[in-house]
From TrEMBL:
It comes from the Eukaryota. It is found in: Membrane. PANTHER family: NECTIN-4, NECTIN-RELATED. One of its GO terms (biological process) is heterophilic cell-cell adhesion via plasma membrane cell adhesion molecules. This is NECT4 protein. Residues 4-97 form the Ig-like domain. Pfam families: V-set (PF07686). GO terms for cellular component: adherens junction; membrane. The lineage of its organism: Eukaryota, Metazoa, Chordata, Craniata, Vertebrata. Its main location: membrane. The keyword Nucleus does not apply. InterPro entries: Ig-like_dom, Ig-like_dom_sf, Ig-like_fold, Ig_V-set, Nectin/Nectin-like. SUPFAM superfamilies: Immunoglobulin (SSF48726). Keywords: Disulfide bond, Glycoprotein, Membrane, Repeat, Signal.
Length: 97
């Protein structure tokens, strides 16, 4: 989810909107939503999607970057795409099949 990595003390940040759970049907595409309601003059430059595994370990699935585009890790290549083009305030992805 798009969260600023550093904010000065007292600085207000926007709100990350996600769904607590998403239902998927085996063999069909599913949208994993994530939207950032930015405060004035904030801009999302990167969204990183992680998959939480056993023992709380996380593995990177995809990185959406404003300058460098999308990078999807090998196990997910061809299966993960960005849902919408444009500003990264909409950081939703589609997980295919």
């Amino acid at each position: 989810a798009p969260v600023p990595s550093w904010l000065p003390a007292g600085c207000r940040s926007g709100v990350v909107e996600v769904q607590r759970s998403v239902t998927a049907v085996l063999g069909q595409d599913v949208v994993l939503p994530c939207r950032y309601r930015a405060q004035e003059q904030e801009q999302v430059v990167q969204v990183t999607w992680l998959k939480r595994g056993p023992a709380g370990r996380s593995a990177e699935v995809a990185v959406l970057n404003r300058q460098h585009g999308e990078h999807v890790q090998e196990p997910y290549a061809g299966r993960v795409l960005r849902r919408a083009s444009g500003a990264l305030e909409d950081g939703a992805i589609v997980l295919r099949n």
